[in-house]
């Protein structure tokens, strides 16, 4: 599978709230850069993803692009606190596993939901 296929398969897995299936696409030495900071290693990645999946209602891919080694998926998530949470994830892939992820989303709607 090329990077785009891996990124989309990973997205389908977490969008279905299947943590184990999603983690099957994550390299042991993965590095994640997210608005809250850097996460290193598969265990840390799992700990990062778990609370998000707990509040996830659904996700729709808006666009996806990639080549052999890199991909970006733009999507809109529905979560329990926020009805529309657009985001983008850029990934690099080696041997069918995501080795790097840059996760970008707007934190303000979540902040406002916590204050309500």
Stretches where pLDDT is under 50 for at least 5 consecutive residues are none
The structural class is: alpha+beta
Largest sheet at a glance? 6 strands, mixed
Give me the CATH fold name: Nuclear Transport Factor 2, Chain: A
Percentage of helical residues? 25-40%
Give the averaged pLDDT, no decimals.
Answer: 94
CATH class: Alpha Beta
CATH-derived architecture: Roll
Strand line-up of the largest beta sheet: 2-1-6-5-4-3
CA radius of gyration: 13 Å
Report the span from N to C terminus: 44 Å
Secondary-structure element string? HHEEHEEEEH
Proportion of beta-strand residues = over 45%
Topology:
Layout: H1 3-15, H2 19-23, E1 26-34, E2 37-40, H3 42-55, E3 56-66, E4 70-79, E5 85-94, E6 97-105, H4 108-115
Parallel strand pairs: 1-6
Antiparallel strand pairs: 1-2, 3-4, 4-5, 5-6
Account of the 3D structure:
This protein has 116 residues and is an alpha+beta fold. It has a single domain, classed as Nuclear Transport Factor 2, Chain: A, CATH 3.10.450. The chain is built from 4 helices and 6 strands. A 6-stranded mixed beta sheet has the order 2-1-6-5-4-3, covered by helices on one side. 20% of the residues are buried. The mean pLDDT is 94.
Features:
NTF2-like_dom_sf; 4 helices; Nuclear Transport Factor 2, Chain: A; 34% helix; 116 residues
Short description:
This protein is an alpha+beta fold and 116 residues long. The chain has four helices and six strands. A six-stranded mixed beta sheet has the order 2-1-6-5-4-3, covered by helices on one side.
């Amino acid at each position: 599978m090329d990077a785009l296929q891996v990124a989309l398969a990973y997205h389908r897995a977490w969008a279905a709230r299947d943590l184990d299936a999603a983690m099957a696409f994550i390299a042991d030495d993965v590095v994640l850069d997210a608005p809250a900071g850097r996460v290193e290693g598969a265990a840390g990645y799992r700990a990062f993803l778990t609370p998000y999946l707990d509040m996830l209602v659904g996700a729709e891919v808006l666009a996806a692009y990639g080549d052999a080694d890199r991909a970006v998926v733009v999507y809109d998530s529905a979560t329990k606190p926020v009805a529309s949470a657009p985001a983008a994830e850029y990934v690099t892939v080696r041997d069918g596993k995501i080795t790097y992820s840059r996760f970008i989303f707007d934190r303000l709607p979540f902040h406002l939901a916590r204050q309500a």
